[in-house]
Specification:
The strands form four sheets. Strands 9-11-13-15-16-17 form a six-stranded mixed sheet. The protein has a five-stranded parallel sheet with strand order 7-8-10-12-14, with no helix packed on it. Strands 2-4-5-6 form a four-stranded parallel sheet, with no helix packed on it. With 271 residues, it is an alpha/beta fold. The protein contains four helices and 17 strands. Helix 2 links the parallel strand 15 and strand 16. Helix 3 packs antiparallel against helix 4. Keywords: Receptor.
């Protein structure tokens, strides 16, 4: 079988791998493709070469203790425009080419995949140029108590994937940090039910307001606004407050006209 139109479910079988799908080239469906193996059975998973349209992927429940996903397999998932990836637990295989498990201080020059948290602090911020070729972080990106002003040094970072119910991006206590624009970041993933991006106590330019929430959400449109937090305020709450403010001003001035309305929009951007 080369093409499957419909959903794919692999559950409660004696298969030890997905190699029986070796000839499968595409899956086209509007429902879930679920991988839910039984206890102590599946040791590896083979990803089809391509998916078309939108697909939901679940890898869950009682996996073999040696079960892991290679970076190539994970890239197949995360570069597909799927609606969601539910992977619990997920473990990345450690025998991948150009995979590093070291701290920033010991990071190799040819490292394109980092398995573990990338932690940047005052003791190693002078080494951030070592991250310039990193493409994927299988863990959290944490920038804390530095003098950094931006993250342009992550010029090739495309994916941040966090599987241990943690926040994907934490940037806090950086008084000069004012620009959260990632040059090439395509997607972040976390199985955390609450927060994906957390910014606390950075430059006043990144204060919790409607404009900053819009700028951040524009980079991560697939995230819900409640999963983005600025100084312990979710963007969902910030936007709700801004909308209530606008509605209140309109209610008090029903005859503002178009110019007055535009002025309110400008004011709203500064809230």
């Amino acid at each position: 079988m080369k093409h499957l139109i419909g959903s794919l479910a692999v559950m409660s079988t004696d298969f030890k791998s997905g190699t029986f799908l070796a000839s499968l080239e595409s899956v086209e469906c509007s429902t879930k493709s679920r991988l839910k193996p039984p206890v102590d059975i599946i040791e590896n998973i083979y990803n089809p070469n391509a998916f078309t349209n939108v697909i939901k992927i679940q890898i869950e429940a009682n996996l073999h203790e040696d079960f892991c996903i290679t970076t190539q397999e994970m890239q197949t998932f995360i570069t597909t425009e799927f609606a969601s990836l539910n992977c619990r637990p997920c473990k990345i295989c450690e025998n991948n080419v150009n995979m590093c498990n070291d701290s920033l201080e010991n990071l190799l020059d040819n490292c394109t995949h980092v398995n573990g948290n990338v932690m940047i602090g005052p003791e190693n911020e002078h080494l951030v140029s070592k991250l310039k070729i990193v493409e994927t972080i299988y863990g959290s990106l944490i920038i804390r108590s530095t003098n950094l002003t931006h993250i342009a040094f992550l010029e090739n970072l495309k994916h941040i994937l966090t599987f241990n119910y943690s926040v994907s991006i934490i940037i806090e206590n950086n008084p000069q940090f004012s620009n959260l624009t990632f040059p090439n970041l395509k997607r972040i993933y976390t199985n955390s039910l609450l927060t994906a991006i957390m910014l606390n106590n950075n430059s006043d330019i990144l204060s919790p307001n409607f404009k900053n929430c819009d700028l951040i959400h524009a980079q991560f449109k697939y995230l819900k606004t409640k999963s983005i937090s600025l100084d312990e305020n979710t963007c969902e709450a910030i936007q709700r407050s801004a909308n209530n403010t606008l509605e209140g001003k309109l209610a008090n001035h029903p005859s503002l006209g178009i110019m007055g309305f535009l002025n309110l929009i400008i004011i709203l951007g500064a809230l």
